[in-house]
Amino acid sequence: MSASNPTLITFVIYIAAMVLIGFMAYRSTNNLSDYILGGRSLGSVVTALSAGASDMSGWLLMGLPGAIYMSGLSESWIAIGLIVGAYLNWLFVAGRLRVQTEHNGDALTLPDYFSSRFEDKSGLLRIISAVVILVFFTIYCASGIVAGARLFESTFGMSYETALWAGAAATIAYTFVGGFLAVSWTDTVQATLMIFALILTPIIVLLATGGVDTTFLAIEAQDPSNFDMLKGTTFIGIISLMGWGLGYFGQPHILARFMAADSVKSIAKARRISMTWMILCLGGTVAVGFFGIAYFSAHPEVAGPVTENHERVFIELAKILFNPWIAGVLLSAILAAVMSTLSCQLLVCSSALTEDFYKAFLRKSASQVELVWVGRAMVLLVALVAIALAANPENRVLGLVSYAWAGFGAAFGPVVLISVIWKKMTRDGALAGILVGAITVIVWKHFEVLGLYEIIPGFIFASLAIYLVSLMGQPSTGMVQRFEAAEKDFHLNK
């Protein structure tokens, strides 16, 4: 499709606004803590919405609506699992991680936190966890760049190569310049845009198909099993989809939002805001795909693009049902979903390289100004590697993204969760948890045992490894004292 002027203008205005926010954040970035965690200054609203936006990538407006459109409500189990997992993460991890990182050397990254929490003088914990972050997140970044490229390619008729750079350039620019504050402030705008699109679109589709009763009758006429939550599923299949929720405990880009909150007092309000946003967004996503069944069955003459690629259901409904200016805003929501996640991933990779390699091993006496510029250079480096990986959209490496979520969830999830609730956890227990979780995910995925999503055995085995190995040793007095002080701080201020 050739670019329509209103859509193009809307995209340009949106991207310009994101870059402008990056330059505003630049003025507030004075040291590495500012660049990596925004100086721990995020209020509850920004903490909530940036955590949500960094989590939900292009799949929210493309992948999930397409799956619902093709198979009906049986594909919604993943949404239920994500909501449960996100809520438990806010409830058990968010506030405690905020105080634990502060009490353990004012840690700025997860590897930094692990190293301080478990008094790891060898640097092994820091190195292994930083390597896990770099490997999985570089692949994640490549996936995000491909998603952005495909949006530009289909919306504006660009070649894939041109779309690749166009989709990535703005995200790289504001992340490079403004760091964590830019990413968090833009995430807040992007989260607002996403919820606007996902509330408005299903309502307009309902009106276009004649209301609730007519829409449901049309969906039933197309295939009665569209309403069956158990259609084509098995017990293991449902558990596997629900298991996606376990991943939240170990996602570095989401956990960074908890670490950056201005205080523990902000967390409870942030949890309520974030969960409301998430439920509305996922509900809207399911509704777009579900109501789309009725619309395109009643209008087969415009169903061609969706028939060819069911992930275009949201894009096509926006283009058909809205005037070009509103459609441009709605399509910008897809770009917002892609950019919000990609920017967080770039920044976490940059943080790992700067804080956990450069500062920890190469330049311990580096000035804050030097570290900020090294952080910016690392954003650029990771982005260029990700673009190189994304240059061929058929590259097999992008298939790894399906279990990168599981890799983080199993390698880091149990370590993070248990480290903030159990004072007897040891360094060897943490090392065992990371290694067992990551290895289990890779092996389980390779052999596809029982058809069970690999995050579930990975999470269980990693948790058992942490517990059993920790029982073989004893945490130091200092570790226990810091844990108890942080826990007391949490309960006094939550």
From TrEMBL:
Gene Ontology cellular-component annotations: plasma membrane
For this UniProt record, the keywords arranged alphabetically read as follows: Amino-acid transport, Cell inner membrane, Cell membrane, Ion transport, Membrane, Sodium, Sodium transport, Symport, Transmembrane, Transmembrane helix, Transport
The reaction(s) catalysed by this protein are: L-proline(in) + Na(+)(in) = L-proline(out) + Na(+)(out)
User: Main subcellular localization, coarse class?
Assistant: membrane
Give one Pfam family. Answer: SSF
Q: Which domain of life is it from?
A: Bacteria
InterPro entries attached to this UniProt entry: Na/Glc_symporter_sf, Na/Pro_symporter, Na/solute_symporter, Na/solute_symporter_CS, Sodium:Solute_Symporter
Q: Which PANTHER family match?
A: SODIUM/PROLINE SYMPORTER-RELATED, SODIUM_PROLINE SYMPORTER
Instruction: Name the family the entry cites.
Output: Belongs to the sodium:solute symporter (SSF) (TC 2.A.21) family.
Q: What is this protein called?
A: Sodium/proline symporter
This protein's species is Pseudomonas fluorescens
Higher taxonomy? Bacteria, Pseudomonadati, Pseudomonadota, Gammaproteobacteria, Pseudomonadales
| Recorded name of the encoding gene | putP
